[in-house]
Amino acid sequence: MVNALPLFGPVGPEMLIILLVLVLLFGANKIPKLARSTGQAMGEFKKGREDIEEELQEMSDPDATTSTPSADTEPVVDEEETETETEKTN
Q1: Which range of residues forms the domain containing residue 49?
Q2: Is residue 48 very low, low, confident or very high in pLDDT (cuts 50, 70, 90)?
């Protein structure tokens, strides 16, 4: 019977050897820092990828709402400003 587990990555003694080499190379204190910084980098990468995907989706979808006002809308005019302008002209 053929064992298929080693085809899917290190298990058992192989994992122990890899962990031992990591401890020897980086030291026991730096491994948590290394893991933390790797996790933060992966999070930033994921956030950046999602932002780019959103931008591409907005560009490909012409009906998507944007934060900039369209040219069809009229600007809002304050009534007090309009009254003072008409008083100046009279």
Answers
A1: 28-59
A2: very high
Structure token pair of residue 64? 């998507």
Asked whether residue 43 is domain-assigned, the answer is yes
What count of other Cβ atoms lies within 10 Å of the Cβ of residue 46?
10
**Is the overall model pTM greater than 0.70, yes or no?**
no
Element housing 71 (H / E): none
Looking at residue 61, what DSSP letter applies? -
The token duo for 1 is 């019977």
Helix, strand or coil for residue 62?
coil
Q: What b-and-e string marks burial along 52-71, b requiring 16 or more CB atoms within 10 Å of the CB?
A: eeeeeeeeeeeeeeeeeeee
Whether the Cβ atoms of residue 38 and residue 45 lie closer than 8 Å to each other? no
